[in-house]
Every structure is written in C-alpha cells, then in structure tokens.
Amino acid sequence: MMNTAVAMPAPIRRISSDVRALAASGDPVIRARSPYAEGRGARLPMGDGTGFVDYVYISDDLFLLGGKGAPETDLEEVFVGEGHLKFNFHLSGRSHIQLGSDEPMANDGLNGGILIQPVGTAKREVTRAGTPHEYLTIICGPELLPRLFEDHIGKLPTPIQAFARSLPVSYGGQFRPTPDMVSRVRSLLNSAYSGTLRSVQTEAVALELLCATLHLLAGGSEGDTAPRLRSRDITLLQEAADIISREHTNPPTLEQLARRLGINQNKLTQGFRHQFGMTVAQYCQTQRMNEAARLLKDDALTIYRVSELVGYEFPGNFTAAFKRHFGVSPKSFRR
Known about the structure:
The protein is an alpha+beta fold. The chain has two domains: 19-217, Jelly Rolls (Sandwich), CATH 2.60.120; 231-333, Orthogonal Bundle (Arc Repressor Mutant, subunit A). It is 40% helix and 22% strand. The protein contains 13 helices and eleven strands. The strands form two sheets. The chain has a seven-stranded antiparallel beta sheet with strand order 1-2-3-10-5-8-11. The chain has a four-stranded antiparallel beta sheet with strand order 4-9-6-7, with no helix packed on it.
C-alpha cells in the first residue's frame, strides 16, 4: 500500500475528521445530500461535486468513511489520531499518504491497509485529481474488539492485540482484500437504499467486512476455491485486462476472450476475479465509465455523444449506469 516516496502538493482542501459530528450535522445542505437516516450519516462532495465522501456513525466505537468519484482537483484530507484502529479498503484511484513527519508514500490501485493512529498524531492524504477513486475505511474504537470479538483477539497480529487491550501502540500494515471484500465494499458505495434501510445495510455490511478481515489477519484463508495461478496464467490475465481496456465499447464474450488467450474459461473467470478484485464484466464496466468520465471533460461533446462513444445505444441507460458508478449524473459530473 505504501512503498514509494512521492512529493506532496500544497494543501488544496481540508475535511473534518470528526465523523460523529458530521454524521449528526444539522446543516440543511449536508442533511439534504445524505442518503442515511437522520443523525446516522452525512454526504459531502468529493472535490468539485464530482463524487461523494460519506461519513457514517454506527455506534460510539464504530464509524465508516467511504468515497467514490473522480475529483477535478487534488483533494486533501487531514485526520488527527483519536486512538482508533482503521481498516482501509482501497479499490481504485491514486492517493498519497503521509503519517506524521514520515516520507509521503503512494497508495495506488487495489489494496488494504491497517492503521493504529495514536491520539494527536496526524495522517495526511491527498487524492489525486482525474482518476476514479473508490474506498471504504472502517474506524474502530478500542472497546469494539473486546465487545464483539473477545474470543478471537488472541489470534490477531500482536499490535492489534495490544490495541484491543488498551496498550499504547502505533502500527501500519497491509493486506490483500479478497474478491468477497471488494464486492461488499461496492455494495455499500453503490447502494440504492436510503434512510433507515441504508443505515441498517451499512451496519450489517460493515460487521461482515470486519469479520472477514479479522479472519484473514488471524491466518484464515481466502477460501479453498482460490485458483492456483502460474506465472503464465498471470501474464494471460493481464493480457485479458488489456484487451478489455482496448475493446470496452464492444467487448468479447468470456468464451471469445478465453479462446483468444488460449486459457480455460473457468480459470479466466476465477483467476481474473482473484487478480483484479472484480469480475470481467465489472472490469469492463469500470473501463467504460472511466472513459466516459474522461470524455465528459470535453464540453464540445454532448452527453448523448459520450454515451454513444462508450457503447450505449440509449442515453438513459448510460445516465443510470454512470450515476450507479460515480454517485452523480453525467450532467452533474461535468459542472
């Protein structure tokens, strides 16, 4: 997750780290944007209104922070440590992270992060403009693990055990999100629910993600069905991704793709999901939406024309798909 030193830009914008205060905000503008029940969540724009950042209050020791969109300017967030344990599921996009006075590091693509941030320490993150960005962070207070997972704590990495026992600890680590985790995160970011339905779904999925992550960190496997991939298989899967990227407006079927690559269709299906955290169809749709976001920046192109260029016969279907993917309509995106 954090392996390459980079230069951080000047601050662009700051967002409060007080999740509880934002979630319960009485601000009519924030409340109007929120799809959650009153007092349970708040939604703010992700850089120039081209996406969203959600702040969700579940309990006094469990919060969520998630976002989806493509900021038109670099977006800076500064979080001051409050003694929380954070699990971050970073699905796509490019950001740079700096902990305290450490060297800034790159955080790109699909990865998972673990952070125990002592009280008063600062984490600065800059989301880079122009790249579709999806992430979800689960924020746990020190009482949560003993309250819900007491019999599991002894199986977890030592720093997390120390955190659960209220011992002073600072820690940063990483893990590889499983396809199931990616699917659950996307189910929240793309949810069509609102009000109490949205709030209940968010709590349920957050707890499922916590269970899956703790199981993984305790040495649990991703499942016996994870494919065994040789180096040649991995090369072919990357070639499959390249083909889809080039031909996303008229993509080959799974059967056609497997035949072109000379790979078993089952291995293509399972291996692709394992390598990229999504199905072939989801990857193709992501490429189409990314291209649509790029084209929408050209004011000379109508939304109807953009929908044609990314392979949609009917603009209404394109608008619905774009809003599901980015959380905003094509018209709002290009404002």
